[in-house]
Amino acid sequence: MSNEMKNKKDQQLESFRVKDEGKKLTTNQGLKVSEDEFSLNAGDRGPTLMEDFHFREKMTHFDHERIPERIVHARGFAAHGEFEVYESAKEFTKAKFLQDPTVKTPVFVRFSTVGGSKGSAETVRDARGFATKFYTEEGNYDLVGNNIPVFFIQDAIKFPDLVHALKPEPHNEIPQAQSAHDTFWDFIANNQESAHMVMWAMSDRSIPRSFRMMEGFGVHTFRFVNEEGKAHFVKFHWKPVLGIHSLVWDEAQKVAGKDPDFHRRDLWESIENGDFPEYELGVQLISEEDEFAFDFDVLDPTKIWPEEDVPVKIIGKMTLNRNVDNVFAETEQVAFHPGHVVPGIDFTNDPLLQGRLFSYTDTQLIRLGGPNFHELPINRPVCPFHNNQRDGYGRQTINKGQVSYHKNSIAANTPAPASEEEGGYVHYQEKVEGRKVRTRSESFKDHFSQAKLFWNSMSDVEKDHIVEAFSFELGKVQNKSVQQQVIDMFANVTLDLAKPVAEAIGASAPTEGGSNVDKVSPALSQENSVKKPDTRKVGVILDQDFNGNEVKTVLDELKTQGIQPEFVSDKLGVKKGADGIEFEIDHTFLTGESVLFDALYVVGGKSLEQSFKEDAIYFIKEAFSHFKPIGATHGGISWLKEVEIVEKQGVVTGKDMKVFSQNFAGAIAEHRHWNR
Ligand code: HDE
């Protein structure tokens, strides 16, 4: 790509990119190195000499290559992209990047799990981080969100407690990247404001199929301020164009072993294939006058604003279109902060947000080693930046001149603050009054109504999954009292949940309780989400002597719908049809696994070996048990018959290849088929 075609951030990064291939090896001082396999020794059997500056430099650099991982969200993966607004949002905010539909703002998005270490598996049950850095002309704006719209706690002062309880227990460092243990659930039972978030965490939302198929939320209530100074409360939403889809729990656990990199691989490959992930940006707006018009406090981060009451206005779209060049330099060193705002976007008194405004810079100081992390290529704004800050570890810029203070006369009092008209950030002049107290308003104390709203809004299958998730998690808890406390806590939400879970874990089942909220918010159910076949992976199981022409017809048809077939067989290499058509095999039964596909297409063939059929049937049965679409033609149909999975929902067979392909693509679009 020519430099003119690149967006501003990409152009800026270009000046830092280095290509080492084809070059001579040098030290960091630029000295050409003549030998890189033997240290400098006193004699060919003697000790290494201190004098060996090349050895010392190489080893010292290596010894210092690790930086502290993020205390939360350590396991993450990122990509570059662009954001465009559909039409000006001028009525509500003066943020420049939300004004002009012809402007494309470069973005960098990092997705993450929360609890696990940097090397942990990606499909664990957890919230997902969804952090976006917009490189705007007015400075960097960070929307540091999650894929769940509420949070466990209402006040940031409890965050260290929450995270200590969630992380592996300190005495034995078990378990990794799991909430299914005593301390986490002990925290939950003793901090009942977490009830709503726990409902989401136990739902399918916390085992997403892909980063490309999950929503993002700013969680807190922010403020939009327009040119006239008028403010609105605002909540941010990212809506994935492919819809919201999840794995099933058994599958998620197996994928964690078979491919711990499942989500990053999916994102990386999609972008490499040109299937660019897209998300629409939505905003919910409440006018300042309506601050007290709802049955929740707009400042409470454990509450949603039901979309049916406060509609989500879609204002723009983000497209992720470029993978990083270097994960450490970009993904690891990117520093997000909810306090990175631009004029037109401001804060509210949400006590969780207020605490975050402190924590993020603080954490970068230890993680990135000092106050100059804004100079790292990935963190630099694309607009100019000037101030009187100097020095510190790793300083890059060479600030010229005598003056590094304000006010001054020597440099005509520059760099000078900008007026509001010149783009200077002016904080929204909210009136604040009060005594210094360590308390929380009564309006934050209803912990169960929205947890019940969430429950009411789930389909029967989603409810079953929540019961199963609680039964799994509490089933792993050793402490009987903690188990019982959690059951008693969720009896406040609904007995339909608390009772079956109590039975599953041998706790005593509550007989009374339950919130009387009967409201439903259909937007909360994934069943009502967009369903498309695009980018779904189909494992095509095939042996030899199949009808190559017909298989080709099916695959071509599936590909026109955006579906991606990959061949699975007993061996790698080429398999030949009876008509001489050949297909290159992508995975064997050993290297592939049904859990790594969205659907299976069983072609069969003239199976010569019993073991082939056994392996194929293992795949088929597992995919069926995970409610996946299964298609079969030719010999494949007889295999399905053998294991009695024909004429079931989402199992498509056929002799006319065109009709079969259409039906199968339809079944793939449905994602899962629960009624089997
Ligand atoms: Fe964070 N969070 N957080 N968080 N958070 C961090 O910052 C913190 C919260 C979120 O990909 C840390 O750079 C506090 C809510 C994401 O680099 C740290 C509180 C939401 C990421 C931190 C919260 C988030 C972080 C660790 C309670 C959703 C990953 C490393 C008030 C709106 C960003 C870092 C990335 C990361 C603190 C709660 C989202 C320690 C104190 C609520 C997506 O600063």
UniProtKB/TrEMBL annotation:
- State which Enzyme Commission number(s) the record gives: 1.11.1.6
Pfam families in the record: Catalase, Catalase-rel, Catalase_C
Xref: SUPFAM superfamilies? Class I glutamine amidotransferase-like, Heme-dependent catalase-like
Q: What cofactor is needed?
A: heme
Residues annotated as region Disordered?
Answer: 1-28, 507-532
Note the SMART domains from the entry. Catalase
Question: Can you name one GO molecular function term for this protein?
Answer: catalase activity
Composition bias, Basic and acidic residues: 1-24
Q: Which PROSITE patterns match?
A: CATALASE_1, CATALASE_2, CATALASE_3
User: Which keywords annotate this record?
Assistant: Heme, Hydrogen peroxide, Iron, Metal-binding, Oxidoreductase, Peroxidase
Question: Tell me, what does this protein do in biology?
Answer: Decomposes hydrogen peroxide into water and oxygen; serves to protect cells from the toxic effects of hydrogen peroxide.
Family per record? Belongs to the catalase family. HPII subfamily.
Please identify the protein, giving its name as recorded. Catalase
